[in-house]
Amino acid sequence: MPIEVNGKSLETDEEGYLVNLAEWEPEIATIMAKEDDLELTDEHWEIINFLREYYDEYQIAPAVRVLTKAVGKKLGKEKGNSKYLYALFPYGPGKQACRFAGLPKPTGCI
Amino acid sequence: MSESIKKLMYLNRRAPYGTIYAWESLEVVLIGAAFEQDVSLAFVDDGVYQIVKGQDTAEVGMKNFSPTYFALGGYEVTKLYVEKESLEERGLTIDDLMPLTWEDEDDDWAEKDSIRLVSREELAEVMAGQDVVFSF
């Protein structure tokens, strides 16, 4: 189902991931979150931006275990654990946060 | 170390572009890394080109996935064996390869080299010590 943002209709795959990464804009995350009954806070954005930077550098979406460790290193131990990340993204920090960030589904996510 | 941990080696022997082997191998490595096995990679023959610096795929119309090799350290894949003879036969040295590293969490995130230059003979020994070798 396409996602409507700022008068444009953007294509998503059958699981709701944006097909063309280049079309991403922050508004998309807000809209996707609303559909999941989530209000995005600064803490959410911190992870979403982190994921976008990770993708930019490595050209892949990280597996949850890798994300957790990398967040711990960059943003501190109190954030680099699954309890913190799942509290922010109840459908999984890998799957849900990557979707909000406009990335493909993490490699190794089945 | 638990007995259920297997030593898995991914053997890469083809050039990065032109066939899908190199990218497929890398994807399998990343997926397999989630199972917390003892994973290593080996680059021999044209496979050494997979980790050469400064790749530019603009003219071949394939995605340049070489940055993804830098992600391996974060996946705790820290042993990348490169066969010395394969490099020499292609006029390459270790300085032509991407500086791939991993960060040791138990050593205050110290950056350590992932690439291990080995002779054909040494690599054969490492291979003999594996439980499984996947050839790509």
TrEMBL record, chain A:
EC nos: 2.8.1.-
Tree of life domain: Bacteria
Coiled-coil zones: none
Catalytic residues (UniProt): 109 (cysteine persulfide intermediate)
Keywords, ordered alphabetically: Cytoplasm, Transferase
Pfam families the UniProt entry points to: DsrC
A GO term from the CC aspect: cytoplasm
InterPro entries xrefs: DsrC-like_C, DsrC-like_dom_sf, DsrC-like_N, DsrC/TusE
Places the protein is found: Cytoplasm
An example Gene Ontology molecular-function term: transferase activity
UniProt keyword Zinc present: no
Membrane-spanning segments: none
GO annotation terms (biological process): tRNA wobble position uridine thiolation
Family the UniProt entry places it in: Belongs to the dsrC/tusE family.
NCBIfam families per UniProt: dsrC_tusE_dsvC
Role description: Part of a sulfur-relay system.
PANTHER family associated with the record: SULFURTRANSFERASE TUSE
Protein name per its UniProtKB record: Sulfurtransferase
Organism listed in the record: Solemya velesiana gill symbiont
Species classification: Bacteria, Pseudomonadati, Pseudomonadota, Gammaproteobacteria, sulfur-oxidizing symbionts
Automatic annotation (TrEMBL), chain B:
Organism encoding this protein: Solemya velesiana gill symbiont
Top-level taxon in the UniProt lineage: Bacteria
Short name of one Pfam family: DsrE
NCBIfam families assigned to the protein according to its UniProt record, in alphabetical order: sulf_tusC_dsrF (TIGR03010)
Coiled coil ranges: none
InterPro entries for the chain: DsrEFH-like (IPR027396), Sulphur_relay_DsrE/F-like (IPR003787), Sulphur_relay_TusC/DsrF (IPR017462)
A GO term for molecular function: transferase activity
Protein name as it appears in the record: Sulfurtransferase TusC
Entry keyword set: Transferase
Gene3D superfamilies noted in UniProt: DsrEFH-like
Family listed: Belongs to the DsrF/TusC family.
